[in-house]
Design brief:
- The protein is an alpha+beta fold.
- It folds into two domains: 238 residues, FAD/NAD(P)-binding domain (3-Layer(bba) Sandwich), CATH 3.50.50.60; 151 residues, Helicase, Ruva Protein, domain 3, CATH 1.10.8.
- It contains 13 helices and 20 strands.
- The strands form five sheets. Strands 1, 2, 6, 7, 8, 9 and 20 form a seven-stranded mixed sheet that branches. Strands 11-14-13-12-15-16 form a six-stranded antiparallel β-barrel. Strands 3-5-4 form a three-stranded antiparallel sheet.
- Strand 13 and strand 14 form a beta hairpin.
- Helix 1 packs parallel to helix 6 and helix 1 runs parallel beside helix 13.
- The longest helix has 17 residues.
- The relative contact order is 0.19.
């Protein structure tokens, strides 16, 4: 663009939300400039879902919003403006087919985020969106109804601006919370910010011995009276210093604020596919009736992998070759209790460098949900993770990026 050009809209951030916003505005015959501080666009999108790109899911809008907690209703207008069906039709229109192989999560049929990124890049090119990379925005101001967007080597001018700068998660992919700082002078503020969707550390060191196996269908809950309602479900994987896997990624958004507040968070994890103490004992007895010489390790291994079975028996001070009938009552009771609900104390994490999303952002009360426009300054819009909205694994956050990006891109007043 020329030095004195004033474009219709400058979009800051070329992630999922920013690119959809750019395409939407350009379709309305707007002159659009998209600025990205990294040398390439869509870095975080390319890494999404391990590179498979879980775009959305098949839940109804009401169910979808409920997964975001009490602030979920803020999404209503955006989800109505750009539904999951609209998202699939849009990608179909730019040459990307989608499907839900498990009946829930929606992926490109290629199961490659590169397919999505390439199609978005081509769509922007076809609509004459000007995309400039390696453009870190340092300051935004507004004079005489014109926004001035200052980078290290240029000042761009626009009638309107859309911030799609993301949160703080994965700084190596460009997330530095730029939008939080850039909007302070306009009166905007953020909630407390926490890393979310990430592995967690445990006080217990035995987890390092159990790294080889994925434990399916676990339930994880906080063992603190005030937070008894915090529960998550999904597969769990032990690491050298803690836990990861879908159940942990989902639960991290609840846990990280508690770690900051209390230092450590006691949790209980059901690793036996929902079985309780009575059911476990009944199963053990049934097996022993068929194999009277079965050791307690052999019985436990019918529920859990070998390494994990040995660690739990060690916790309960029970020898691997003991027979069920020979284990004293107190130890047997402890074993059944530990199998049903294994204690894990969460005491840390790796910070934002390993967080896929950020819990927190620009306060929602400062944004008009019907337009995504700032309530403080006309012509300033927000979309995606920069706002205080975050959801669990399963395509929730990408659909929100697409829907909010679309609504912001309409530039409604």
């Amino acid at each position: 663009m020329k030095k004195d050009d004033v474009v219709d809209v400058v979009i800051v951030g070329a992630g999922a939300a920013g690119m959809i916003a750019a395409i939407t505005s350009a379709k309305d015959c707007k002159k659009v400039l998209l600025l990205e501080k990294l040398p390439q666009i869509g870095a975080k999108l390319k890494a999404t879902g391990g590179g498979r790109c879980n775009l959305s899911n098949t839940l109804s809008s009401d169910e979808f919003m409920s997964k975001f907690g009490r602030d979920g209703r803020f999404m209503q207008d955006a989800l109505k403006a750009f539904t999951r069906e609209d998202m699939q039709e849009f990608f179909h229109s730019i040459g990307v087919e989608t499907h839900a192989p498990d009946g829930f999560r929606i992926f490109p049929t290629s199961h490659s985020s590169s397919t999505i990124l390439d199609a978005l890049a081509k769509a922007m090119k076809d609509l004459n969106v000007e995309v400039l990379t390696s453009q870190k925005v340092e300051e935004i101001s507004k004079n005489n109804e014109i926004f001035k967007i200052k980078t290290s080597n240029y000042v761009y001018s626009a009638n309107k601006i859309i911030l799609a700068t993301g949160g703080l998660g994965y700084p190596t992919l460009g997330a530095e919370g730029d939008g939080f700082e850039l909007t302070k002078e306009f009166g905007h503020s953020t909630t407390d910010l926490y890393p979310a969707m990430m592995p967690l550390h445990t006080k217990e060191t035995w987890v390092a011995e159990c790294r080889a196996d994925t434990i399916a269908k676990t339930t994880m809950k906080v063992d603190m009276k005030k937070y008894k309602k915090l529960v998550a479900h999904g597969d769990l994987i032990f690491t050298k210093n803690g836990v990861r896997g879908p159940v942990v990624l989902d639960f991290a958004r609840e846990i990280t604020p508690l770690i900051e507040k209390y230092g450590e968070v006691p949790t209980l994890v059901n690793l036996t596919k929902g079985k309780n103490e009575d059911e476990i004992l009944k199963e053990f007895r049934n097996i022993q009736n068929k194999n009277i010489d079965a050791s307690i390790l052999e019985l436990t291994k019918t529920l859990l992998p070998d390494a994990l079975s040995k660690e739990i028996l060690k916790m309960c001070d029970i020898k691997n070759d003991s027979k069920l009938k020979d284990i004293e009552g107190v130890k047997k009771e402890k074993l059944l209790k530990t199998l049903a609900w294994t204690p894990l104390t969460i005491n840390g994490h790796d910070g934002f460098k390993m967080a896929m999303i950020t819990r927190g952002g620009i306060k929602l009360k400062e944004i008009d949900p019907k337009t995504m426009q700032s309530k403080f300054i006309e012509g300033l819009y927000f979309c995606g993770e920069v706002m205080n909205i975050d959801g669990p694994c399963g395509g929730y956050n990408l659909q929100w990026s697409f829907s909010s990006g679309y609504l912001a891109g309409k530039l409604l007043k």
